[in-house]
Amino acid sequence: MRAAWKPWRIVVAVLMPVALFFGLVAWAFASPVGAAPDDDYHLTSIWCAQGDRAGLCEPGPKPDERSVPRAMTLSSLCYAHHSEIPGKCAIPDAEGLVPTDRGNFNDHGYPPVYYAVMSVFASPHLGTAVISIRVFNAFLYVGLLTALFLLLPARRRGLLVWSALATLIPLGLFLVASTNPSGWAVLSATTLWLALLGYYEAASRGRTIGLGVVAAISTIIGAGARADAATYGVLAMILVVVLKAERTRAFLLRSLLPVGLAIVSVLLYLSASQGGVITRQHSTLPPYEFAWLLWKNLLDLPWFYASSFGYTGLGWLDTFMPVSVWGSVTLVVSGLAFWGLGRMTARKVVVLAISALAVVFVPLYILMREQIHVGTGVQPRYIYPLLILLVGLCLYGMNRFDLGLSRLQLIVMGALLIGANGIALYTNIHRYTTGTDAQYLNLNSGVVWWWPIPVLPMQMWVLGSFAFAVAVAAAVVLGLSTARRNALRGFRYRALESTVTGE
Asked: How many domains does the chain have?
């Protein structure tokens, strides 16, 4: 136990969240205003979340419209879906107000919590406000993970760190450091189930209260951002209860918290008309057409899983990652999930089966309900939180920071994640500064769009890549020290055993 608190280990542990935060900040600067999917809707919803405000959100010419800064609606008209167009819109009068009916004020499609919190940052200075929101979301992500890391017992910390890092690239990094509410869904999926797990296992009153608070915050964050995230949160609560269920009074008393959080999730779900992504009613398909559509969607269903790790473009689905990004991340995620299957219990089998069924059933149900094929209508980010939960559950039971991996496995995994992030960040910056048609290796060459800051695109890429590399390297170093400590313990045990037996 003493080795865990050596000064160098404390320094390395502190480096992880600090470096991860700066890595996310680089992603916050890696795209212009309006770059996240449906950002014209979400920015308008944020600016109008507190009602009418002069210069921010004013009454429109029609009852279902609001007048908002024109610049926040330009992305959908300018560079969205066109990766060859840089992130700069040359449209006259971009500073004026323009009426729009795209916003949560009109259809109440999303729960109100996310927009209400983000509206604090709304100001006439759109660029500054957007960056403030992105940086705040990055800080919130790192802050909640850090609090959970400190509250969880040592045997659960590796599960938190590696399940988060492995599933974060590139979609998670982009969404967390954005103005899109899906970033909060990612945070909730990463933290809620582990907070509840630690809450049930905590031996001290302080840790129980602390982990309960983290679980409550994580629930409100997810359910307050997206209706589907509210359902995923309830699913996570059920799975943790299955893992930790006991026939004791103490368990029943502790279960009052997840019951209350489930009620909060249901109420926030009912506050939105989103209902996932179901939008239209259709006539019933003939049996053969239904069977054929079901068959085709089943065959193509892995598209959602690969796309969650970069196979499909970021932003408005127009920033396509090189194969080296999604290939590396998919390899790491698949390897960790497969490694986790080596340690199974009856309860783990049940929760994994339920979680895997959700990963298959949710997208398939929506596709068949909408009568559409994989790749249309349903975006990977809708299913992505379920994958984060599934990967974490696969690693459940790996009660060491190194997850029982060898030194070489840890180093290779870290190298793949560092490389994937560096390539993904470079690709994202290049897409917006010059457009994908421009053939410049130097990100500072031929720049059409960039923030009015002293840090140039190439410098931002280097800083962001280095920061994320430090975060991953810190995790690898902690994992290597754990592996070395356990190896020494095993050596001493074998030496003692040989002495006793006289061999």
From this structure: 2
Same domain, 21 and 53: no
d(CA 183, CA 144): 13
Query: d(Cα 109, Cα 295) in Å, to the nearest integer?
Result: 31
Q: How many CB atoms lie within 10 A of CB 124?
A: 11
The candidate with the shortest Cα–Cα distance to 431, out of 35, 28, 10, is 35
Domain boundary among 104, 121, 138: 121
| Distance, CA of 473 to CA of 418 (rounded, Å) | 8
Quick one: 170 and 104 in the same domain? no
46's torsion region: left (phi>0), alpha (psi -120 to 50) or beta? alpha
- The last residue of one of the domains, among 106, 121, 136, is 121
Q: Write out pLDDT tens, residues 355-403.
A: 999 999 999 999 998 889 998 888 999 999 999 999 999 999 999 999 9
Residue 69's SS3 state is strand
pLDDT tens-digit readout, 7-23: 878 888 899 999 999 99
In degrees rounded to 5, what are phi and psi of residue 68? -130, 165
DSSP per-residue string spanning 110-122? S-SHHHHHHGGG-
Query: For 375, left (φ over 0), alpha (ψ -120 to 50), or beta?
Result: left
Give yes or no: residues 180 and 111 share one domain.
no
Whole-prediction pTM: 0.92
For 186-242, give the secondary structure using H, E and C. Answer: HHHHHHHHHHHHHHHHCCCHHHHHHHHHHHHHHHHHHHCCCHHHHHHHHHHHHHHHH
To the nearest 10°, the Cα dihedral for 434, 438, 442, 446? -50
